Sequence to fold (287 residues):
Amino acid sequence: MTTTSPRLSSTPRRVGGRRRTLRALSQSTPLIPSLILLVIFLVGPMVFALWGSLTNTALTGYRAASPQFIGLDNYVALFSDADFWNSVLLTLVFVFFSAIVGQNVLGLALAVLIRASAKPVSTIVGTLVVVAWVLPEIVAAFALYAFFSSDGTLNSLLTSVGLGAVSWLIEYPMIAVILANVWRGTAFSMLVYGAALGEVPPEIMEAAQIDGTNSVQRFFLITLPVIRRSIATNLMLTTLQTLGTFGLIWVMTGGGPGTRSSTLPVLAYQGRPSGSRRSATARPSPR
Fold:
């Protein structure tokens, strides 16, 4: 009976492990320039911003030239500010109703309707929706301000049908900016879902139709499960985009009246302690 030395039997494993390591390193070498750029342009600014949050630095004045380390004082002041938690709540409401519900549901509905409509109708509807998306944000913001202002287009339409005018930007600022963001961003969701619906296998839909299912059942039981990855991707993209929305809200309401539409990006721009923050009425009029 022959026995194999444990040292000899482990040698091939070591050699194989070294080869795999060298192969992995050689395959990762082309990624080194990308990693360097990622560290410089992504990680670097994040570290710099984190360090700045631990100091009393400012954009101008003495503190801009000679900032001092103050530890967690900025975070303590932020978390003890009632306006911060109000902005967190408003941001969650804004993202949920304008991105997760508004843009995704309306975008999917438009994509389904366009595929089911005649060519001229789908072309006209698709063009009108995409125009809102391709407009520069500042142009769209001024147009929406004019639409929702007290003497704007919306109130003119309401007055023409016998309804009273409403000061949308003062009485219902969050509803106004939510509807504005839905109008602004629905085209992206419509295009994503339009492409996803084109990937649904027609033979599956035909088989389900032969089995006696109606259009609603086919939509919920077949179409939605097939495009679930596109739904998840679009939800993520629209949420991230809406979290950073600033220009639209700033032009329409300036975060006001008071802080009733001050989301986190607006609060970060205002950057002043509670009580000294400029109200919406103090901002320049976009007219």
Summary: The CA atoms of residues 17 and 23 lie 10 Å apart.
